[in-house]
Amino acid sequence: MGKWKVLNSEYKYKSPFGNLRKDTCEMSDGTVIEDYYVNEYADWVNAVVLTVDEQIILVRQYRHPGQDFYLEVPAGKIEEGETYEEAIVREVREETGFISNTKPILLGEFMVNPATQTNKVVTFLIKDAYHAYEQQLDETERVEVVHYPFERFEEMIQEKEITQLFSVTAYYLAKNFLSNS
């Protein structure tokens, strides 16, 4: 088994949100796949944001593809020239108005879906957060900031109040980090 070779690549669609690329690939055994579609997206960041009194800061927003409202940890895509750490600090401040004087703790970097997508999510823990700013949302963002005791998050997952996978993953990474530190 070896890596595939790209014989041809063409863009079918490009947008500010992502691109759709069609590749023709040759597998290591010589098998040719004519139509392998790849979704190119920017990397994104997310964070479990905890206040001094162990409240987790979440955002609630409508997600059109899911046709519902979702409770999520703050998240967003990387902007040009930003580090992942700079991006999560900016996203948390813009979406929630919360900041922290402590440096974000990197919990992990994960491919979103390497079968069809090029991007990864980089997950952080931000501790000792406090509210310092008003939200600075994009024109099409409608985000409600809510908070719950951190210890209640797992119950919310079990009760299907939280169903967004990257928020669930971020929680378990943070829980593991906190219990081992």
UniProtKB/TrEMBL annotation:
<dbReference type="Pfam" id="PF00293">
    <property type="entry name" value="NUDIX"/>
</dbReference>
<protein>
    <submittedName>
        <fullName>NUDIX hydrolase</fullName>
    </submittedName>
</protein>
<comment type="similarity">
    <text>Belongs to the Nudix hydrolase family.</text>
</comment>
<dbReference type="GO" id="GO:0016787">
    <property type="term" value="F:hydrolase activity"/>
</dbReference>
<dbReference type="InterPro" id="IPR020476">
    <property type="entry name" value="Nudix_hydrolase"/>
</dbReference>
<dbReference type="InterPro" id="IPR020084">
    <property type="entry name" value="NUDIX_hydrolase_CS"/>
</dbReference>
<keyword id="KW-0378">Hydrolase</keyword>
<feature type="domain" description="Nudix hydrolase">
    <location>
        <begin position="40"/>
        <end position="181"/>
    </location>
</feature>
<dbReference type="InterPro" id="IPR015797">
    <property type="entry name" value="NUDIX_hydrolase-like_dom_sf"/>
</dbReference>
<dbReference type="InterPro" id="IPR000086">
    <property type="entry name" value="NUDIX_hydrolase_dom"/>
</dbReference>
